[in-house]
Write a structure and sequence with these properties.
The protein is α/β, with parallel strands linked by helices and about 270 residues long. The chain has one domain: Rossmann fold. Strand 1 and strand 2 form a beta hairpin. Helix 6 runs antiparallel to helix 7 and helix 6 runs antiparallel to helix 10. The longest helix is centred in the N-terminal third of the chain and has 15 residues. The chain is globular, with a radius of gyration of 17 Å.
Length: about 270
C-alpha cells in the first residue's frame, strides 16, 4: 500500500539474454538514473524500493528516479564498458533517454563509459566517490575483497567493506548491527560479485575522459580508503573539461551517506539550468 502511495515500481526487464532489476519512483517528468556501486554484486536493487525512496526522496520531488542494477547473469570478463552498453539498451527499452545520471563508486566508472560512448543519453552527470583508472589503493582493497569472496569469507568481506567505507564516528553507531549486515551481505551469486569486482580492477577510462562533454559534477571524500583520496577526484575533474568538483575533506567512501548536505548538492546540480 505504501509503495503504491509513493509510486514505487519494483520491476525486472529482459536484456541481452538475461534480466535486469530496477526500481523507479518520483512524480517528475525528467528521468534521473542512479547507477549503484559494487554492492550491486552482493544484491540487486530488487525489493529495496522503500529504502531507496527514503534515501533519494529529495530527488523524487522533481524527477522520475530510476535505480538500475547490472544484469542478473554475468559472464566472466564482463567490463564496465560493457555494463554501460547494456545500461544504454535498458534506457532505450524504458524510454528514459536522455536522462540525468548519477554513478556511485563502480556506478561512477560505468557512467564514465556511458558518457563517452553514448553522449546523447546524458543531460548532466554526477560521478560520486569513483575513479577513472586504478591505483595502489583500489588494487589492494578490491583485490582483498576478491580473495575473501573467493574463499567464501563473506562475514569478513562485509565487515571490511564497512570499515573501509565509513568514518569512525559513523561506525561507532552501526557496529552493533554488524550481525545483520553480515547476514544481508551474503551474495546471492559468488560469481556475480567476483565478476563485478574484477571489472573494477580493470576499469580504465582515463585516456577517453576528454570525450565527456555534458555538465559533470565530481564528488569525493578526502580520506577515501577504497578509491584513494582527494587527488583521485581532482584528477577526474581536471580531465573532464565541463566539470565542477566538491570534496568532503573529512569523509571517505561513504561520503554520500554521511554528508548531511549531499542530497541537496546533488539536487541543486540537477535541477538548475545548464
Amino acid at each position: 500500500m505504501l509503495k503504491k502511495l509513493l509510486s514505487i515500481e519494483d520491476k525486472t526487464i529482459a536484456i541481452n539474454g538475461s534480466a535486469t532489476d530496477y526500481v523507479a519512483f518520483g512524480r517528475g517528468k525528467t528521468p534521473l538514473l542512479i547507477i549503484p556501486g559494487l554492492s550491486d554484486g552482493l544484491k540487486t536493487v530488487k525489493g529495496t524500493g522503500l529504502m531507496l525512496w527514503f534515501i533519494y526522496r529529495l530527488l523524487a520531488r522533481d524527477f522520475k528516479v530510476y535505480v538500475i542494477s547490472r544484469k542478473n547473469e554475468l559472464k566472466p570478463g564482463y567490463t564496465t564498458r560493457q555494463m554501460a552498453a547494456d545500461l544504454a539498451l535498458v534506457m532505450d527499452q524504458l524510454g528514459i533517454a536522455p536522462a540525468n545520471v548519477m554513478g556511485i563508486s563502480q556506478g561512477g566508472m560505468i557512467s564514465q563509459w556511458l558518457a563517452i560512448d553514448h553522449p546523447g543519453k546524458i543531460i548532466k552527470l554526477a560521478i560520486v566517490i569513483s575513479v577513472s583508472r586504478q591505483n595502489e589503493t583500489t588494487r589492494q582493497v578490491i583485490g582483498n575483497w576478491v580473495t575473501l569472496a573467493g574463499d567464501e569469507d563473506y562475514d569478513d568481506l562485509a565487515v571490511d567493506m564497512m570499515e573501509k567505507s565509513y568514518t569512525e564516528k559513523y561506525l561507532k553507531r552501526v557496529r552493533l548491527f554488524y550481525w545483520l549486515i553480515k547476514k544481508m551481505s551474503r551474495p546471492k551469486s559468488q560469481q556475480r560479485f567476483l565478476i563485478q569486482a574484477e571489472a573494477c580492477l580493470t576499469h580504465d577510462a582515463h585516456a577517453e575522459l576528454a570525450k565527456i562533454t555534458c555538465p559533470t559534477f565530481v564528488i569525493g571524500g578526502g580520506v577515501d580508503r577504497i578509491v584513494g583520496d582527494a587527488e583521485v577526484q581532482q584528477d577526474l575533474a581536471d580531465t573532464i573539461e565541463n566539470s565542477t568538483l566538491h570534496i568532503y575533506p573529512d569523509l571517505g567512501h561513504g561520503a554520500y551517506a554521511e554528508a548531511k548536505d549531499f542530497g541537496e548538492r546533488i539536487y541543486d546540480f540537477f535541477i538548475n539550468e545548464v
